[in-house]
Amino acid sequence: MERKVAIFRKEHFNAAHRLFVPGWTDAQNLEQFGKCSNPHYHGHNYELIVKVTGVPDPLTGYVINLSTLSSIIHDHVLARFDHKNLNLDTREFATLNPTAENIVYVIYEILRKQLDASMDLSVRLYETERNFVEYPA
Amino acid sequence: MVFLTRIEHFNAAHKLYNPAWAREKNEEVFGACANENWHGHNYELYVTIKGDPDPDTGFLMDVKKLSYIIKERVTEKLDHKNLNVEVGFLKDKMCTTENLAIGIWNQLVANLPSFVTLHSVKLYETPRIFVEYFG
After folding, report:
1. Distance of CA A84 to CAs A26, B62, B121, Å?
2. Å between A53 CA and nearest CA of chain B
3. Which of A18, A30, A68, A114 has the maximum number of C-beta atoms within 10 A of its C-beta?
4. What predicted TM-score, i.e. pTM, was given to this entire model?
5. What is the ipTM, given to two decimal places?
6. How far does the CA of residue B78 sit from the closest CA of chain A (Å)?
7. A74 touches chain B (CB under 8 A)
8. B126 touches chain A (CB under 8 A)
9. What residues of B act catalytically?
């Protein structure tokens, strides 16, 4: 039987965002999203945990080289989102509301394309210490 | 003498940008923090007061009242706000963690009861970066 192992890499990025539906009035957005809809934006220290599951290579003992995984996350996720305004500075959230749910899905899709199909991927994203999401569910 | 600390938190957007400088110089000095469209943080705030416990209550200060003062004077003005644009006590100041801690101190020091002394304001911008101000 193949012995699967999960390996995790933690990263972080800081970003500004605003939750709102463009077709709604400020009052409607305030009612739905509360102070998260502030038109002047607010921000978070996002903590990202990437989980990759696979069978360790018999020669190297690695599921994936953690340095490689870190580089992939840096080049494809952090370079796009760190110290950015998610609504204004990223094409991913130009029209998609940057909720934690949508951000974790977008990050999953970005990373999925960079990893070998034999590996399973799961992404957990902390917006605050107390609010976090995970995809796939 | 006893020290008592209350921890609060707020989330805010800001940028480090000196309006008197050209964009290039801001980027050179402040790097990614100068992004014109802002970025943001989860700030953790530690407010420490000191004094002697009241003999009747055993309290230095009712910590719920301390929490209320911090909320009213500080976190309600900062939480889910843009620090550069929306905060009166930071107007015309650079929105560094250093200046934010000094601003928070000034918001609190005049509004605490006379039987306690404000000892320190410790402010985490990220889990790895924090400042302390002792007045």
Report:
1. 23, 41, 28
2. 28
3. A18
4. 0.90
5. 0.84
6. 9
7. no
8. yes
9. 33, 80, 125
